[in-house]
Amino acid sequence: MALAKEIMGSRLIFERSSLASSSSPFQSRLSIKKRTQRTQFSINPFDPRPMRAAVSGSVVAAISEDLVKTLRISTVGRNQEKKEKEEEEKAVKFKVRAVATVRNKNKQDFKETLVKHLDAFTDKIGRNVVLELISTQVDPKTNEPKKSKAAVLKDWSKKSNSKAEKVHYTAEFTVDSAFGSPGAITVTNKHQKEFFLESITIEGFACGPVHFPCNSWVQSQKDHPSKRIFFTNQPYLPSETPSGLRTLREKELENLRGNGEGERKLSDRIYDYDVYNDIGNPDISPELARPTFGGREFPYPRRCRTGRSSTDTDLMSERRVEKPLPMYVPRDEQFEESKQDTFAACRLKAVLHNLIPSLKASILAEDFANFGEIDSLYKEGLLLKLGIQDDMFKKFPLPKIVTTLQKSSEGLLRYDTPKIVSKDKYAWLRDDEFARQAIAGINPVNIERVTAYPPVSNLDPEIYGSDLHSALTEDHIIGHLDGLSVQQAVETNRLFMVDYHDIYLPFLDRINALDGRKAYATRTIFFLTRLGTLKPIAIELSLPPQSGPNRKSKRVVTPPVDATSNWTWQLAKAHVGSNDAGVHQLVNHWLRTHACLEPFILAAHRQLSALHPIFKLLDPHMRYTLEINAVARQTLVSADGVIESCFTAGQYGLEISAAAYKNRWRFDMEGLPADLIRRGMAVPDPTQPHGLKLLVEDYPYANDGLLLWSAIQTWVRTYVERYYPNPNLIRTDTELQAWYSESINVGHADHRDAEWWPELSTVDDLVSVITTIVWLASAQHAALNFGQYPYGGYVPNRPPLMRRLIPDESDPEFAKRTYELNQNQIINRRPLNLTAAVPFRLSLFSLFSGSPGSVNSDVTRCSELIRVPSLVEGCDYKHWLVLMKSPKGYPPRNDIVRGFIKTLAMALGRVHEPLTYKIRSLPDVKWVLPDSFIVDGDSGYGGEPFIDGEVVPYDEKYHADWLRDQTDDDAKNRVFKKKPRRKRKKKLN
Ligand SMILES: [Fe+2]
């Protein structure tokens, strides 16, 4: 009403109010009707029943000041009176006013601006925007819906220069009192240019304002001759559709379904199905040919049909559209301007972190030399060579804001510091963080309870060989079970696992044959400690048996006992992280929350009218998915796209996704409770509000997720029960049944015969189906999407691409790598630069080239450390090594010691706080790590030689250089900028 006042002027509103409150008999009748009709047009979606009454309602009176000039009361006979009354009512004309809200575009190119001005000009001469009101009633004479006379949107030309985000236009209709309630409005755009119509509100009917939510692009009549149809915001089940709207309801759905032919124009609004036959680009190169996904060989959900012509080299493949050209999605599915910018910026961030290795390799033809270089991405940024930068910008068109930033900063590409390293730089190396991410990280949906140990593969031995049994034994884990036997641990729900064996194994031969890509099929076993936290206790790394005579096809890595096994363990965790990153992106995120929803969305637009209450419920949850999926086909999952380039699985990534769809995806298991029960993470518990008891009590994804699931379910149930008071209405709802049936039989055609599809015949069925879809599109997607940069932005935390397998000690490569390490990779041998030795080159995978040592953090408890008998004498696991930055220059030893003591003294005396936290926060301290990492054979404590398994106390024999420094004044004053001048402890190399 406020809006109406602003636009229509308060005078008119006031006059209407006066009229409505008049005491004349006729006006009293109008007042009664007005009150009645107000309820009929309630915008409360829970209030369908009054509207049903409106369907059978009769005349809706008007309240215009133009009303009733011809009203007379006849005193002749009853029939005559009736006839005259009809004629009188026919003769009653009144005006109502429409307020159309049109959203302006912020940015327009030259052509658009030109056309806009042209439209403003031609609008005055009749090429304008025309509205027509349609009643809910049918005219008994013509059997057609009653219509108003056409009305034109006024002042288009005058307002064409408005810079406001929204512009309101008015139009005035003349209707007669027999018109009934408005149920639809048609819009004809005679301009050249489309416009975005947000809503129309009609003022002037006795029922109060009538709202038409439009939120749609209205195309020019020259491109789309038929009138656009918009319905009021009042939902109707199909069987309850007012007679005046029935034909329109069907017609609009026909428009949206299209005829399945021809190439789609960007301005179309047609929703149709197709298979994924546009992933490859065989015309460019045979290497870029990709199979069709969707069909018997590679089952897949269907995508939105675009109807492009086939490629020259493969008639079954559709020609690609490359960025920056847009891929077709129905016009209203395209991003709004604001969303476009936000999405592009977010996509950039999510995508760029995966490009780090290839960018770096392109620029410097080598991998990162150390963690410091990775850190510099967040501090200084990466200066790209101009050519590389241009290439990248071509491949991944960036939003303007970033392009500007690039230009203004001469190609400096800087990343936000990912959350995983912003507070604790080495958290990602710790086992407790590794376990925490399995239940609260970006992929918390693969962990499952171990029900049988060792785990069993479900792969077909006839296809994948008989040697599918696990290499895990009781010996591998028995020492980590708090005194329980393995059987007891299983029976008391203390063993869990993340099992990627069956997902990856069928593809490993092909993946590992790719240049610079190596993967295992991993299984990680976790133990639930008495504290209620998980800790990883074994990682099984499997390869296909035929991977070579010298290569063991299975290997189990357990938590470290020394420096060498520490890095083997870290590398095994990195391979797990890589498996996890692939499954997260290709299966859980892309397949389950994007691709699998697309058929439900297509079917909803094709089969559920905008008038349908379930469409209104689903609509906000379906927004933008088609557009995002189209962009994904174009740049993410496409041949040579981001996923192929940056994930270990390379070109086989979508095949992994298709296999997961075929073998694992079940719609009835996509809801959170069902999924938790299937994975053994929860059991039914009627005493809980959500009906489940979690077996890992502190499982943040599930703790939070169940609250959200319950809230969604409650909302959906309340809504559904209002519209379907009895199940018969569900069974006989033609649109609802057509939607569900088409989603299954066409959209998920490769699973159409599956027995697990839920029925759709009761309220519970419908609540379950809708809750699952809403859950997947909202909370589940959020859980799998929004942590991508916080966790994946720091690539070492979950490297998407691994370059090398892990050599074991029997492998000749192990000795080679160890030799290389000893020659090149033990860094900073300066006194008191206390580094743990790195057992072999860390360029085993590209992202980990050279590094400082490991760290177990201050939160590691002494009792949890692995105790090794061969440690430095005096090591009692209650002390910590403190690693400090190298002192500037090359000061004498005593100065270094004094500096070290001074630093430690800053923390000592305040032991009421966790000491290691304190020490680590001190200036120049790099790490604090338990001294259990110092073992025989390693460089050990830089300050004292490590000879024959023992730290040698100060001895002239080993400290000649120090003695020299102590007596040589020149040496004291000398500044060494780069290399230490001593090569000490060669014996250890
Ligand atoms: Fe997403």
Automatic annotation (TrEMBL):
Entry keyword set: Chloroplast, Dioxygenase, Fatty acid biosynthesis, Fatty acid metabolism, Iron, Lipid biosynthesis, Lipid metabolism, Metal-binding, Oxidoreductase, Oxylipin biosynthesis, Plastid, Transit peptide
Entry's family note: Belongs to the lipoxygenase family.
SUPFAM superfamilies documented for this protein: Lipase/lipooxygenase domain (PLAT/LH2 domain), Lipoxigenase
GO biological process, one term: lipid oxidation
InterPro entries: LipOase, LipOase_C, LipOase_C_sf, LipOase_CS, LipOase_Fe_BS, LipOase_plant, Lipoxy_PLAT/LH2, Lipoxygenase_dom_3
Compartments where found: Plastid, Chloroplast
Residue ranges annotated for the PLAT domain, each copy included: 110-232
Name of the featured protein: Lipoxygenase
Organism: Thlaspi arvense
GO cellular component assignments: chloroplast
Pathway info: Lipid metabolism; oxylipin biosynthesis
Keyword Kinase listed: no
Cross-referenced PANTHER family: LIPOXYGENASE
Functional summary from the UniProt entry: Plant lipoxygenase may be involved in a number of diverse aspects of plant physiology including growth and development, pest resistance, and senescence or responses to wounding.
Needed cofactors: Fe cation
Root EC class: oxidoreductase
EC number of this enzyme: 1.13.11.-
Residue span(s) of domain Lipoxygenase: 235-815
UniProt GO MF annotations: metal ion binding; oxidoreductase activity, acting on single donors with incorporation of molecular oxygen, incorporation of two atoms of oxygen
Annotated PROSITE patterns: LIPOXYGENASE_1, LIPOXYGENASE_2, LIPOXYGENASE_3, PLAT
Gene3D superfamilies linked: 3.10.450.60, Lipoxygenase-1, Domain 2, Lipoxygenase-1, Domain 3, Lipoxygenase-1, Domain 5, PLAT/LH2 domain
